[in-house]
Amino acid sequence: MAPRRLPDRRVEDPPWIAGDSEDPGDPGRVRGPPAVPARLVVAADGRRSRLAGLLGNEAESRPNERAALFGYFRGIPAPADNRSVFVMNDRDLACSYPLVDGRTELVLFAEKSRVEGWRGADGRMQEFLKYFDGLPDAPPVTDAVPEGPLLGYGDYPSLIRRPVAGSVPFVGDAALSLDAMSGVGCGFALLSAQLLAHAFAGRALDAEGVRDGLDDYRQRFEKTVLPHAEGICGDSLVDKDEATRQRMFETICGNPELSQKYLALTGRMVLPAEFQRAFMRGLMARGSGAARK
């Protein structure tokens, strides 16, 4: 499936960001230091990008049915080899990360409905540790001592913006900010910056060079990043039934080549379409093997 292209709306933006303006309604000026001329301005100002607001690059909001909670603790024994532990529990993912000096980070990505009733700081902490205490293969938390309050969010929709607005490219969370369980925030920030650098490599920053570089970056972003974003947004709806999920992971785990492809997919080293083709081959091979038996 070809990646869906975001609606393109070109705006004639000045290729510079200026300081205080006499006209507070001037969209080409940002309050701050004195005016600084620039041949290319990059929007890398995060999920709540102010430049996006100034340039009319509105975010497309996608629902995310997961909440996320995390905290730091002492008193949790580290697993053998100091390994991190990930436990899939129905549609949730619980993570334990052993850190230095006897500290452990616990992270829970759970359906919103599961944590909505965890009210108050003390009650939320008690329910959080109770959840981990009931998980098989998770490290024991009986003696866990919190180092601070739980952090996280209960509602965090995924946001996707056009990678280019007028003459300004967007990178990192300013371009897209997705369900945190996917673990792509820093990775996509570096990837989008790399795509932008490659798009402008060897180009002069004159009007023609900037225009061509922006078109190149837009195409690279839509081909490389958007397919992953679509998959992540779909997964954050957590609507797979248990039987479907079980069948998917049985197929992946029963095929070494497919397992490597899945690791590459979660590491964002292959495009979703490549994994999907391999997965369909794995399903067919598994089905023909069962028929022979």
From TrEMBL:
Keyword tRNA-binding in record: no
Alphabetical UniProt keywords: Monooxygenase, Oxidoreductase
Domain of life, per lineage: Bacteria
Coiled coil regions in record: none
Ranges of Basic and acidic residues composition bias in the record: 1-13
Region span, Disordered: 1-34
InterPro entries associated with the record: FAD-dep_Monooxygenase_BioMet, FAD/NAD-bd_sf
The keyword Oxidoreductase is annotated on this UniProt entry: yes
Protein name per the record: Uncharacterized protein
Source species of the chain: Streptomyces hydrogenans
